[in-house]
């Protein structure tokens, strides 16, 4: 099993050397003694499709989502200008070969039913479903090693809403702040803790809305990049986790939060397949910001309800998304394909 590829390279030099890169990939693939190659995203799908012309291999496209730069009009039409321009240029040059390379794959595995439906719409192909899992094991006493309230100087009687993963313009930075404003109007002792990768555009949007909506600076804290070893502390010591990404393909953040017993509120899409609505968190229709904030206030104020959600979230992840169980499922799918 050989895994190739990754996300779209952003360096223009990569695309200027694309033909040379393709030749190198094909040369390496042809030297491998393999039965099955899994490609993730374009251009890896294209490289494998070219190699298949030379050697007999099984090619599985492991699809996180149909390439957003080519197929998601909402994504590229609402993007910053430089992304609009680059995606327009890349669509002209590469869209046809991206589609053709996917059509030449022997099988497609999708990470959610939401993406499975998109694959059918974009490529007119059927696919297999595999919902990824997460590690459920935690070291003993791990959760007592760090105190968020001490690290960020948060009062003991404050509630913490944790949000992270604002890596592009459809991650819901604007929505997050409008929702939070409604919450602190009702519960002033609530703190929004934002971590993870934040694009420059999203960071400026957040700063602008903090001032525009007159949200006190002490109520919005930036944790910057959170190391993987510290993520459990952030989840477990937060009251809620918000996942405001728009039409997200899947998202591991809700699973990681629920593993730690912290309920999640998210917009519909891929998270609809991991969060049990009304049991381990809430799924909200896109742009329903009032409903989002009302559900959050309800969970903050009703301690008994929050405790029930917390217990169910842990149980749900342990029983349905344990990494060992999910690896076994993927292995079964791949054996069937071979």
From TrEMBL:
SUPFAM superfamilies: UDP-Glycosyltransferase/glycogen phosphorylase. One of its GO terms (molecular function) is glycosyltransferase activity. Keywords: Transferase. Residues 149-316 form the Glycosyl transferase family domain. CDD domains: GT4_PimA-like. PANTHER family: GLYCOSYLTRANSFERASE WBBK-RELATED. This is Glycosyl transferase family 1 domain-containing protein. It comes from marine sediment metagenome.
